[in-house]
Amino acid sequence: MKNKIIKQAYIVNEGKITISDVLIVNDRIEKISSSIDCINADEIDGRGLYLLPGIIDDQVHFRDPGLTHKGSIYTESRAAVSGGITSFMDMPNTIPNTLTQELLEEKYLKASKTSFANYSFFMGINKSNLEEVLKTDNENVCGITDDGLYFNNDEGILANYPEYLDKLFSRSNSLVALHSEDDDIIKNNIIKYQQIYGDNIPFPLHPLIRSEDACLAATKRVIEISKKYNNRLHLFHISTLVEANLFDNELTVDKKRITAEACVHHLWFSDNDYDKQGAKIKWNPAIKTEQDKDGLLTALLDNKLDIIATDHAPHTLVEKNGNYFNALSGGPLVQHALVVMLELYHLGKISLEKVVEKMSHNVAEIYTIKERGFIREGYYADLVLVDLKNEWQVNSKNTFYKCKWSPFENQVFKSKVLKTFVNGNLVYDNGIFNEISTGKRLRFSKIR
Question: How far out from the chain centre does Cα 162 lie?
Fold first, then answer.
């Protein structure tokens, strides 16, 4: 691999913006200085552009194996690097579900051959595999989760089984990441609206079915049990302001035992968008009110919420069609997550430094990822070069997801990802992909 110098870019890193050169030697950042000369290096002009640490997405559903008609590690990691995401952590709700260490390692093997980005895979948990889960290697696996899985006989999620949660937290030394909604409240809401509308429940009622009460009840329950054991708990996709206010901001993120995230769709859309978007913005947990949307952003700025993720979960357009019960929940997001947050920057709602903190630095800190998430000498050269003054419009031709649609179609963004580097390799260059290089397996500190 030839050495590279990124010249005179605005570097956004660790709460500051400075103009510097960055020398990449092999897969690492060799030097950061106001001026660097290196005869045997390719020069990349960064003048007027912004260099960010690569985005780390801790919640994706890349659908591989078993659901590759929706997406695969190859197609979705390709879309991810085009959006500046250089590392991802994938969920276990593939076919088969990732419920054994053997199946987990099979996913790592496939990613080593096909992923454009760096990768990790969560170990899945259900009612019958606790002993298998407790074998999880904290240095080589990002954590344990139930996200996307049914816990017991095709029903429920782990947040609804407090006795089992108690058992897990009392024995696990891994990071446990959970989806928290109360199943009983959701079921009762479904019955209520089905009596009125039958199977044709209007999509704007989705946030009243998967309601604030359902989210709050489950999240409070999980937090209470976790605190008994001082366990390392991470809450996925917080969708309501009342939940966000459950978390404290007194400790720095590396000292917190309980952390939480917001997702880009909950920060961009609100219930005002259901009439236009319908099933395309049907997610679980649901997109809720304008007050919730604004409150989540405030909670991020106040450090009650710690990171921003995508919950990228592609379905085909056919699978998103039909009535309320037939249209599947989830949608593709990795290509557009960063530019969404940069659009909020342009709107004066968040700083560039805070975007980087929530999408790179804090993800590395929460998961104790080794030598990634920051622009530092000696760290892996996972970098993204963006132009904040390069307007473009999302359409099906410039969308790289295998499902070939986006909830942001026709949206005009002011910022554009120009180049993405993974381990020093230029994997994405303004629409052109390097099909040869692959990412690396993420490594973690053992103590969580």
Answer: 26
